Amino acid sequence: MQFGRSYEEFEVGATYKHWPGKTVTEYDDHLFCLLTMNHHPLHLDSNYAEETTQFGKNVVVGNYVYSILLGMSVPDISGKAIANLEIESLRHVAPTFHGDTLYGETRVLDKWESSSKDDRGVVHVETIGYNQDGKVVCIFRRKVMVPKANYLEARGGEQPGRPTPQPDKNWPGPDATPEEPAEG
C-alpha cells in the first residue's frame, strides 16, 4: 500500500478520496476537548447544548474535525512529506455531531519545484470533509513540501529506516529450508 507520494506522483487537478471514514463518538470528542483544554459547554455539556443552542445538541469541536481530516489525508498526500509548510485557510462550514461519520477527499491545486533545493517540491492542496449525508462540514487548503524520487532513493527508498529481520534460533531466515513436521 502506498503511503504518501513523491513530487513526481502528484498531478495538478487529481483528487484523492481518503478511506476509510471515521465515525465521531461522544467519547472521542470529549477526550479531544479535555486533552486540548477546550472546556466549552457546547462540546461537553449536553443539557447546555439542548437548552441554549440553535443545534439542540452537542457540536464536535472544530479542531478535532480538522485533525481527523488531516490525518485521513496522510496516506494519500503527506505520508512522505518533508514538512507541512502552511495551512492557508480553514473553514468550518457546517456542524459535525456525535455519531456523524466523516469522509474526506483532497484535490491538488498546484505544485512547483523548490527554488533552493533540487530534491523537493511544494504541493498545494485543498481538502474537503463531509458527513454520511454528503454535507460538506470543513474545507482547508495547505502547502506541503514533498520529496522528489531522488531524495527518497538517497535515503533508502519507499520505506527508509526499515530494519531487516535478523535470523536467530527462533527464526532461521527467509532462505532456510522449512522443518518437516514430526511424525506421530
From TrEMBL:
It holds the Pfam family MC_hydratase. Residues 152-184 are annotated as: Disordered. CDD domains: FkbR2. InterPro entries: HotDog_dom_sf, MC_hydratase, MCH/BMMD. One of its GO terms (molecular function) is lyase activity. It comes from the Bacteria. This is L-erythro-3-methylmalyl-CoA dehydratase. It comes from Knoellia remsis.
